[in-house]
Specification:
Length: 155
């Protein structure tokens, strides 16, 4: 989903946001640093597999997943981290590793970290390694209807 399609989706849903360009970055923490955004609000979408289905887990750049806690949050299901080549076809218009945290638009349930959900706003890649979008967390949650759970450790 290139930034134009994403912003059209946000506009259609009457969501306020800001879009910014920046030098190319390849991790959520690098993006946070390059754009002077706190790692607390910079989203890091991660694709996992549970029972043969992909789910999108969204954490802050400053968090890492505790897979035992994530498994517990998902009812004891076996959780497997997916490699990018396993899901890149599900995000056809996004640069690899830059998908926005809207798994719901790609038929994937969204699991949001409780820590990130407690922030006032969320920032994220908009389908490329050079564009981000910032919006209010309440609007993000309204659009994605994520399951919020505690499954991360700050680092």
């Amino acid at each position: 989903m290139p930034v134009r399609q994403l912003t059209e989706y946000l506009d259609a849903n009457r969501v306020r946001y800001m879009a910014h360009n920046h030098a190319p970055t390849f991790t959520a923490q690098e993006t946070a640093e390059a754009t002077h955004i706190s790692g607390k609000e910079m989203a890091k979408p991660i694709i996992i597999e549970v029972d043969g289905k992909h789910l999108m887990v969204v954490t802050a750049a400053c968090e890492r997943i505790d897979f035992d806690s994530l498994s517990d949050a998902l009812g004891g299901e076996r959780v497997r981290l997916c490699h990018e080549d396993e899901f890149e076809d599900e995000f056809p218009f996004c640069e690899t590793g830059s998908m926005p945290p809207f798994g719901n638009l790609y038929g994937m349930p969204v699991i949001l970290s409780a820590y990130l959900s407690s922030q006032d706003s969320i920032s994220f890649n908009a389908g490329s390694h050079t564009e981000i979008v910032q919006m209010d967390m309440i609007d993000y949650c309204t659009l994605t209807r994520p399951r919020v759970a505690r499954f991360t450790i700050l680092h």
